[in-house]
UniProtKB/TrEMBL annotation:
Annotated organism of origin: Aureibacter tunicatorum
EC numbers: 2.4.1.83
GO MF term set: dolichyl-phosphate beta-D-mannosyltransferase activity
PANTHER family in the record: DOLICHOL-PHOSPHATE MANNOSYLTRANSFERASE SUBUNIT 1
A GO BP annotation: glycolipid biosynthetic process
Domain Glycosyltransferase 2-like: residue ranges: 6-173
Listed name of the protein: Dolichol-phosphate mannosyltransferase
The family this protein is said to belong to: Belongs to the glycosyltransferase 2 family.
GO cellular component: membrane
Length: 242
């Protein structure tokens, strides 16, 4: 069984893509990387194809037509991981807001400590965010408090996008029935992991906002998350989780 697959969704990440791939490939633990590119017009996919000549069987690419959303990119990556027989699957941004070195800590939390989901958490030991405006820090922090209050999810960073899943979690969750695509996607996946009784741990990280490229955040993503949380809570009242 192959062990580690890091999924990195991209849209116009030409400024970051080569550096982030090389940073992951140089870690002491061996990781494979899957880039899921949404038709980036800046040539991101072409750069990945060139790098495949260097990293051979460790670097993979899925090209999609058009900007289809973060959640669907990860779901496509999860399906690929299941098909290819990976044991641990990671979510990570392309812009270095997640430190590649922390992948090793997430790996240890699952592979050595026996957890099923390890979350790179900005809020488990206070507020560990660098270069965000205070308004965005507060919105993100209190969004997690809101999720915890409404759903009971025992996680301090409910919207975190830096994670390691044991493949059994992704096989258990019906990926075709995931409803959301933005922040709410991250919340929904954690919520279902918890509801199915999997073991979750938060690993403290320092989140640093991107220095190159453009953020994909929008007000629509926050709106989806706000109302999506209520939908999750109501839906769970009428569902049994094995």
């Amino acid at each position: 069984m192959k062990e580690n697959l890091v999924i990195i969704p991209t849209y116009n990440e030409i400024e970051n893509i080569e550096a982030i791939i090389k940073a992951v490939m140089e870690l002491e633990v061996e990781f494979h990387v899957l880039i899921v590119d949404d038709g980036s017009p800046d040539g991101t996919a072409a750069k990945v194809k060139n790098l495949q000549k260097v990293f051979d069987k460790r670097l993979h690419l899925i090209e999609r037509e058009g900007k289809l959303g973060l959640g669907t990119a990860y779901i496509r990556g999860f399906q690929y991981a299941i098909e290819q027989g990976y044991e641990f699957v990671y979510e990570m941004d392309a812009d270095f807001s997640h430190n590649p070195k922390d992948l090793v800590r997430l790996h240890d939390a699952c592979a050595r400590q026996g957890n099923d989901l390890a979350i790179g958490s900005r809020y488990v030991t206070g507020v560990n965010v660098v270069n965000w405006p205070m308004s965005r820090v507060l919105m993100s922090y209190f969004a997690s408090k809101y999720v915890k209050f409404i759903t009971g999810l025992p996680v301090n960073d409910a919207t975190a996008g830096f994670k390691c899943y044991r493949i059994s979690v992704l096989k258990k969750i019906n990926l075709d029935k995931i409803n959301f695509v933005g922040y709410a996607f991250q919340i929904e996946m954690k919520f279902l992991t918890w509801k199915y009784g999997f073991k979750i741990i938060e690993v403290p990280i320092i989140f640093t906002d991107r220095t190159l490229g453009t953020s994909k955040m929008s007000s629509g993503i926050f709106k989806e998350a706000f109302f999506g949380v209520m939908k999750l809570r109501l839906g769970s009242m009428f569902k049994k989780y094995a």
